[in-house]
Design goal:
alpha/beta; 12 strands; about 550 residues; about 10% strand
């Protein structure tokens, strides 16, 4: 969770950047720096205005265009972002990054279900056209395309809650073509080398977030638990940032290589160590992770579900998931071979919640003392418009209810307008029921969890880390499994916990469960007590690591199909 930039320091930096623009008003980088200062101070409209001024004042600059398009996208001004991208392409017709931006622009927050359909169809059509038109027959064109996929990570598609295999394969094919054109020898299949009797199986974990992150909370246990007598574990950190968690990862691994987030440096380091198996922990989160996953470093390459969508890449062989989260038709959702590890597939350490240190009250979070408080703490991107009716129906049954949402500053207006429309249409006053808060620091987030009566899960992309932490805080989680795994993470967590009464079969049942929890304190208390009694069934589960060891043994022995 994040907070605003320190006001004093931020204002000082803002004044410096304004002076830099006045001194050199034809320098694109000065406008980019000034816009960044405004953004850090939660002044999103000012940031966009500065970038627009820079475009009008400076000579044509692809970087200025890229920043302007990105900020418009982040503020949910999608059509303006598309227009800006098309204007930029007219100035720079050979720039692949601008074309990729234009093709894959999606709203961060949808206003209506029909809007979602419109943009999904546009995404597929525009990306398909770009793939057909892309030419890689000249060195400059190959380098331009390589740079583009290293910067571009479209992150909003998965939040639509659909089966994205076809679209991901389309994008994965595009990425693979670009990587193969630039590094033809680095995409070729590799044979599993024979091993000496006492030679360990070399497993490489690759991530840009070997630090305090969802990837480490969820998958750090894999690295910690693998048997060192049989496996040589190495981590490759494609980022400069480090923290205390990075130090833990260093202790878990036989080797830890932190390199500049540079493709050639990373690729050469991994290839030099000749791993038998590679696991990409957070494919699709950063551009460099997409580039790396499109290369071949080991005979067997796997990906985890930190970004729980298929890669669409021919260089990723296996998708490591959890048996309790996947639907019956799960294999149809992946271009990789699906491997379902036991339970939810994670060796997730139980969070230590420092309850005695919490000092904030409900009033600090704008919650009435006597309200039934429902926290919906997921990323705002997960809030699809067809879930608004659920909040309204709960509010009708529980007039004293409040719904707390954590919202990025640039999307607050859009979510507020949508929820206001939904509540007013049912004759309810939004001010009584809706609380929009900025994203919180982790300590304050836990404090807020403890003050809430229950956690309402989103439906298209459910909670993972947030649900694990709600359970650790003893807060009941109401969830409804979706069609794909990323909409079934909370479902799997509660199944492994063995507390399934708050899993809904449909929206009507979802409302029924939430209302009952709000009306029947005794039932809610019994749910909480059973959650706490069964913590050991969920946290620090080593079964996924044991199953992974067997998977890797078979892979290294050439018996994995």
């Amino acid at each position: 969770m994040t907070t605003a930039h320190d006001d004093g320091e931020g204002q000082t930096q803002l004044d410096r950047c304004r002076s830099a623009v006045r001194e050199d008003d034809r320098n694109p980088e000065a406008y980019i720096a000034l816009a960044k200062c405004h953004w850090r101070l939660r002044q999103s409209e000012e940031a966009i205005a500065v970038l627009r001024q820079g475009l009008d004042q400076c000579a044509p600059s692809t970087r200025l265009h890229e920043k302007y398009i990105k900020r418009l996208e982040m503020c949910n001004r999608t059509e303006e972002a598309i227009d800006a991208a098309q204007d930029a392409i007219r100035m720079f017709p050979d720039d692949v990054l601008l074309k990729l931006r234009e093709a894959t622009l999606l709203p961060a927050l949808y206003d209506t279900p029909s809007q979602l359909e419109h943009y999904r169809n546009r995404f597929g059509e525009r990306l398909g056209r770009l793939s057909e038109e892309l030419r890689l027959d000249a060195p400059a064109a190959r380098q331009n395309a390589l740079t583009a996929i290293g910067k571009d990570v479209f992150k909003y598609l998965g939040f639509q809650g659909r089966n994205d295999r076809e679209l991901q394969v389309l994008y994965g094919g595009l990425v693979h073509r670009i990587m193969a054109a630039n590094y033809p020898s680095w995409v070729q299949p590799l044979a599993m080398p024979p091993r000496a009797q006492d030679e360990k199986i070399r497993v490489a974990f690759v991530s840009s977030r070997f630090a305090h992150s969802s990837a480490m909370k969820t998958f750090g246990g894999w690295m910690r638990e693998l048997d060192r007598k049989e496996f040589d574990v190495c981590a490759y950190h494609a980022a400069q940032y480090t923290d205390a968690v990075t130090g833990q990862v260093r202790q878990w691994c036989g080797c830890f290589r932190q390199l500049p987030p540079d493709l050639k440096h990373m690729a050469n380091a991994i290839r030099a160590d000749r791993p038998h198996i590679v696991v990409f922990l957070d494919h699709g989160v950063d551009g460099i992770m997409t580039q790396l996953a499109a290369l071949r470093f080991a005979p067997v390459q796997c990906m985890a579900w930190d970004n729980p969508v298929t890669s669409g890449l021919p260089t990723v062989d296996y998708f490591l998931s959890g048996a309790l989260m996947e639907p019956m038709n799960a294999k149809d959702h992946y271009s990789e071979t699906l491997v379902c590890l036991p339970g939810v597939g994670a060796c997730y350490a139980k969070p230590v919640i420092p309850t005695v240190l919490f000092s904030k009250t409900r009033r600090d979070f704008q919650i009435r003392d006597d309200a039934v408080a429902f926290l919906s703490g997921q990323s705002v991107f997960k809030h699809l418009p067809d879930q608004d009716e659920v909040y309204v129906r709960i509010a009708r049954e529980l007039p004293n209810s409040q719904f707390i949402f954590l919202v990025k500053r640039e999307l607050e207006h859009a979510l507020h307008a949508r929820l206001t429309r939904a509540f007013l249409a049912s004759g309810l006053q939004p001010k009584r029921h809706v609380v929009l808060l900025p994203e919180q620091r982790m300590f304050d987030y836990w404090n807020l969890l403890q003050l809430s009566d229950m956690f309402l899960d989103t439906m298209g992309w459910s909670g993972g880390v947030s649900t694990m932490e709600a359970v650790a805080c003893g807060v009941p989680v109401v969830t409804m499994p979706g069609a794909v795994m990323r909409g079934r993470q909370s479902y799997g967590i509660l199944r492994q916990l063995g507390v399934t009464e708050t899993i809904a079969s449909d929206k009507h049942h979802y409302v029924e469960i939430a209302v009952r929890l709000g009306r029947e304190p005794a039932w809610k208390s019994s749910v909480i007590e059973r959650m706490k009694e069964r913590w050991a069934h969920l946290y620090d589960d080593t079964r996924p690591a044991r199953a992974m060891e067997e998977l890797f043994r078979r892979a290294a022995g050439g018996t994995l199909q």
